[in-house]
Amino acid sequence: MEKTDHHLLVGHGATRFARLMGHPDHDPRTPERVTVWNQLKQELRCGKTGPDFRFWKRISKWQKAYGLFDTVGACAIDSRGRFAVATSTGGIWMKLPGRVGDSPIPGAGTCANRYGAISMTGHGEGVMRLCLGRHAVDLMKRLPCQAALDATAKYALKHGVECGIIGVDAKGRLGGAHSAKWMQLGMAAGR
Is the pLDDT of residue 148 over 60? Predict the structure, then answer.
């Protein structure tokens, strides 16, 4: 992207650009994801779900049964105080083609500044609407990491956004919080 003035490309334009830049064609779908996708489509065709959240309850059961919680985030600070942050996600199920979630959006699902770094998971549209990543790292200017993340999760909950967040602040303090019912996280400190 450094060869253009653009910040984000999606869909066919992104594919064409990638080929022009020499990146080979590939199919990111795994057999397991295709199987679950086909099961979802069949469920919808059979009319077993509706707009009253039964659909999402089913998805939640499948996620628990098959371990499909697939967002992975990492935040780090080195001995010179430089941050690194990355977020990888498969996105939400049944999304429209071309949908861009919060993970690749700086200030949303992934963010770092001189005060801290965060990685998030959750309902991407809500995370983007509230700029929750930026909110969290800006709070680290005056709050320890855990307090900043707790405040961010509380803010998200107040606005009906389910999310989870991990982070590290400029003093190397780690933290994790969530507005969703639960979130798995792990932390490590040291060399």
Answer: yes
